[in-house]
Amino acid sequence: MSIPDLVQLLASRSAKRGEFTLASGRPSTLYIDARLTTMSPEGLTIIGREGLRAIQNANWSVESVGGLTLGADPVAYAIAYASATTLTPIRAFTVRKETKAHGMGRLIEGPFRRGDRVAVIEDVITTGSSAMKAAKAIQDAGGQITGVLALVDREEGGREALEKEGFAVIALTRASDIIAHMKE
Prior knowledge:
Blueprint: H1 3-14, E1 15-21, E2 27-32, H2 35-38, H3 41-57, E3 64-68, H4 72-83, E4 91-95, E5 108-109, E6 117-125, H5 129-140, E7 144-153, H6 158-164, E8 169-174, H7 175-180
Parallel strand pairs: 3-4, 3-6, 6-7, 7-8
Antiparallel strand pairs: 1-2, 4-5
């Protein structure tokens, strides 16, 4: 299974037409519920392998991957799992939306370490604000951002906003690719 298979999974499982309000607050006639793909066995298999390949091809040399919960979580975990048998396994972590009010009071959960080279993970980029929020938390905790890896670029300016902030961006798929494979 490969990127074309991933596009097909996203088109058949995750993409819906209608009237929606996105997390960014923007209205849209297209909604991509990536979790319907990222949390499936087939989706995890493709995403882990292709996400790891994209990070390696970009020469990002990361120690860990993670992003804002909940969308980034299965993508990061799939990449970490796919890396387990490589010479340089990658750890996955989660960035909470707010600092935990009890226990250790953490904003970042998992085996993230200060000084890690990190690929910020995002499921769907629209404005880029979720990835930027995660990147700020990671940088504040001592992480070094190598770039942002997204499952889907909605092609609505988010990639450009992230690049303007100095982040390299890789998207495994684009909304236009998914739309082209949707059945009416």
